[in-house]
Write a structure and sequence with these properties.
- With about 100 residues, the protein is an all-alpha fold.
- It folds into two domains: about 60 residues; about 35 residues.
- About 75% of the residues lie in helices and about 0% in strands.
Length: about 100
């Protein structure tokens, strides 16, 4: 693994942690409450997810991971969620179909 690949992996790891931290704050304070920065937590979460998606794109671009394998894993996860969770109701399933390009 070269230095560029290591850096991409490290930054991706950091971005995962930042998403986790912001989700925790959404639970603690409410997704629509104000972050200490003055922004709404929902907006901060969106920014952190955007940062993570950027890093995922870089992982794919550098061929550290394969987009088709990621897409297959996403589909397997949806199947598991439909079986083992209550996330998918008729309304939620339609919302997910509309957002399937995420």
């Amino acid at each position: 693994m070269n230095e560029k690949e290591k850096e991409i992996l490290v930054i991706t790891q950091e971005e995962c942690a930042e998403v986790i931290q912001e989700i925790s704050k959404c639970f603690r304070f409410g997704i629509n409450s104000l972050h200490k920065s003055g922004e709404v937590h929902r907006s901060v979460l969106e920014q952190e997810i955007g940062d993570l998606l950027c890093m995922i794109d870089l992982l794919v671009a550098e061929r550290l991971v394969d987009k088709e394998n990621i897409d297959s894993a996403k589909e397997r996860k949806k199947i598991k969620l439909k079986k083992y969770s209550s996330i998918f109701t008729t309304h939620n399933e339609n919302d997910l179909k509309a957002d399937s390009n995420i």
